[in-house]
Give the backbone structure.
Amino acid sequence: MSSFKAILISRDADKNQSVAVTEVKDENLMEGDVTVAVEATTVNYKDGLAITGKSPVVRHWPMIPGVDLAGTVLESGHKDFSAGDSVILNGFGVGETHWGAYAEKARVSGDWLIKRPDGISAKQAMAIGTAGYTAMLCVMALESHDITPDRGPIAVTGANGGVGSVAISILSKLGYDVIAFTGRMNEAEFLKSLGASEVLDRSELSQEGRPLGKERWAGAVDAVGSFTLANILAQTKYGGAVAACGLAQGFDLPTTVMPFILRGVSLLGVDSVMAPLSVRKEAWSRLETDLDMGKLEKLTTEIGFDDLISSAHDIIDGKIRGRVVAVI
């Protein structure tokens, strides 16, 4: 009987969590019609929350974490996939309710998979990961609201994180003027190398501010939430839009209706976990053309499987810059 290496999160009768690298038998894989040999994965903020237990991300025990994978189909009972196909998976509860990517194998629903674009390697796909794919969804959301480069700059919060760093790279390639906000001003030159025209300290956004401030940007990509998102909204230009996709600072939104009813600002919620396949395919197609792979390489750090647990702690502690790829 064959087995494979995996990271397993377990919980005892007293709900104390433990994490360990272990061997899992093939027969214990969860239900699904496609079995994938995992080639690469990544470390997202949600993966960090799952492994550290800082937030109740895991909802099935025990759990193999990892919300993103790139790999090759080993077996398929799904009409759209055959053995040998190169595939990508982002979200759909993988790593939360269904065993995920931090393993040598995964069995999943073929409805959750898309074929990897020819111009993107498995490592590049995971350098992008859910964070980069979410950044693309945010850009698409702003575009759908007619936020074009000529309307003014775009603010990006959490600029050193996965969403922020990829968003800067995409937006700058598309011709937008990007204002990056970060808590690590020592990384300013790095962010400018990705395409930011200006780098500002996040502290000016992270505390309670005025309900309506000076109009500074036409739109924004926010992965932070709480006071940061409230201040971003308060300083968005008339008719502008903010794509919100994260809650690194908090899930509250201490704002007023003033930006919405006095300036016509729109708040665009962006979900990557359950986005329909048509949207996913469009986002990945756009990433193949609109993301500078040279910049992607610049913001990516490669690790091994055995480094995943420590990297999950690092992302929660704010020690990771850009994207992390683990080769399985």
